[in-house]
Amino acid sequence: MGVTSRLAATHVRRNLFLASITLLLALPLPAKTFMTQQQALDSAFSKGAALERQSIFLSPDEARAAKSASGVEFEDGLVVRYVGRVGGAIVGYVYFDAHRVRTLPETLMIVVRSDGAIDRIEILSFSEPEDYLPKPRWIDQLDGKKLDAELSLKRSIRPISGATLSGRAIVNASRKILAIHGVVQARPVPKGKPAR
Fold it and tell me: Strands 32-33 and 78-86: what pairing?
């Protein structure tokens, strides 16, 4: 094999190596899972709370009202929530929301108090690089927030330096869930059924 042939073979091997590295870097990383849905439900309320799973279908008018109130576009027509009760009294509601942050998904648990404010938010899984993962201290600033103009990165929610899309995704998910919750809670209570 001549020098030219060896150089050509070396060049081909190097290009194949670089192509394989590029392909590996382009593959999505598995989501980092912090908590399963069941673990999240178990932690949502105090011990002894009873959870009731509810499947709720939004009418087209309800979906439009929730989109308008939240300022967020979404396709959810079926909403699953868990109602937490202690001694028969409602202590809160649990919603799960999966959405895209930048190009990869994130799943949140959003606990809503009986007064319609956020009780807390937990990140269950996060697929983006960990550099974009919000710190618990940042997420804590959403506790107690209701659906109003202040629930915004331009108002009372501090942006995350270097992770604006992560912050926007969590705020938008919070606004969406609070709007859906408000629409569902505004439904008339059927006769003979206890109030929600």
Answer: unpaired
State mean pLDDT over 108-114: 97
Read off the pLDDT of each residue in 154-171 and give the average, rounded to a whole number: 86
Residue scoring higher pLDDT (103 or 27): 103
What is the C-alpha to C-alpha distance for residues 100 and 165, in angstroms, rounded to an integer? 10
The amino acid sitting at 12 is V
This prediction's pTM: 0.80
Q: Maximum distance among all alpha carbons in the chain?
A: 92
Q: Give the per-residue pLDDT at 23.
A: 46
Residue type, 20: S
Domain segments of the chain as ranges: 1-29, 32-185
What is the rounded CA–CA span in Å between residue 75 and residue 3?
62
Angle at 112 between CA 166 and CA 152, to 5 degrees: 40
| Residues linked to residue 83 through DSSP beta bridges, in sequence order | 52, 93
Is a pLDDT exceeding 60 seen at residue 192? no
Task: Give how far the C-alpha of residue 114 lies from the chain's centroid of Cα atoms, to the nearest Å.
Answer: 20
Buried b (16+ CB within 10 A) or exposed e, 29-55: eeeeeebeeeebbeebbeeebeeeeee
Phi first, then psi: give them for residue 98, nearest 5 degrees: -110, 130
- CA dihedral in degrees (178, 183, 188, 189; nearest 10)? -30
